[in-house]
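Please produce the structure of this protein holding zinc ion.
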Amino acid sequence: MSNYDLKVCGGTVANAAETFQADVGIRDGRIVAIGKDIGGAKRVIDASGKLVLPGGIEAHCHIEQESSGGIMTSDDYYSGSVSAAFGGNTCFVPFAAQHRGQSLRKVLETYHGRAKPKSVIDYSFHLIISDPTDKVLHEELPEAIAQGITSFKVYMTYDKLIVDDSQMLDIFAVAKKHGALTMIHAENNAMIKWMSNKLVDSGHAAPKYHALSHPRSAESEAINRAIELAGFLDTPILIVHVSTEAGARIIAKARYQGHKVFGETCPQYMFLHADQMDLPDMHGAKFCCSPPLRDRASREEIWRCLQNGTFQVYSSDHAPYRFDETGKLHAGPRPDFRKIANGLPGIELRLPLLFSEGYMNGRITLNHFVALAAGNVSRIYGLDHRKGSITEGKDADIAIWDPGVTRIARAKDLHDNMEFTPYEGMEIRGWPTTVIRGGTVIVENNELKAKRGDGQFIARRTIDCTGMPGRLAPELDPTMNFGVDLGL
Ligand code: DUC
Ligand code: ZN
Ligand code: ZN
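Below is the modeled complex.
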């Protein structure tokens, strides 16, 4: 008799806090049974000798997105989601970017229109807010949060995206009132511009100077300021793509003090280094991203901060720009570093790199790997009613990892719309060989089984800050400021 549509049997199941041997029964897209002798199924997948893990959730990627300079990423929702699926992901949360003058309603309509017919994995969006008008703040943003878009990113740098401190406070106040999470690109704009202009004016325009133009202290200054501003209103923030130990330490200290702050880092700060920007014939441009790659010692420090829990989120920041006039070299064949499109691809290799170097090499436990792959993100970004663990009642989103498979990273084997990978030639031990989304096998035997548009939009819940004490600044707290109620 068939109790289930699908059963994954004989594998080792791991969540963020437990590991056990069990079969997993799936019906109507959900996990309905976990255990031994759970009964028959229409289809059985034998996972003996393999690890049965929650499908990865990629929480920071740029898909079918126009940059503020008008450059379109090379991946659309089809190629981006296919590449993510081959890398063990069953859900992603790309950005829906507001450029100045645009209405958030229209932006979301556009991105829903891009994702719905193409995505092969489930998806949500983070908004990028670059123009916080009264209408955006008081009508469109609350409306978006009510629709399940419960996080948005702001930039403290980039001329066409930057929001100033006062605008950040306005955005934080809305986030606080409606239970949303603000993600922050924290780099000091003035320091970057000052250094960039000095470098170029003195004849130092090659890609490698991109690293010098984004000083480490530009990151730590901005992280510190963002945390103080958010702490003033006692609203949760997440500092994205942290590249320095100094930045990580500020986050760790703030968390210790009870601030509602989370930290994210990315594989480029753990596996790559700044010397790679010095390749000849402009090939260094392939390694230009912001914040930039740092030195080899920083890389070790970022690993340490991932191991010790300072970073709860590990994302690819997949920003695919090809090495041609559509992407990296959009401003000409030899642009100065200020005009090179910023960003690295990595959506497919994010998890295999961490599995190999983190878990297989003993730097993190299997459970910590699962927390970084899916568990933490599902909780922080309000997806945990559906995703993030192998639990009865949750979506049947599963990646079966084979620790016995070894592959060499090659751009030609990846499924994104890029012609290079910054991780070319690296040896990767362990691979997600079968990927299941909502009870349907989407990757198997190196082949895509999913159809365009199979992925579903997931409305996310508001942020849960349980266990992060926080405290409204006394000047804003009516119990301490002579009863002045600012409605916060
Ligand atoms: N930096 C960003 O902030 N976004 C996209 C890519 C990058 O390098
Ligand atoms: Zn950013
Ligand atoms: Zn990004």
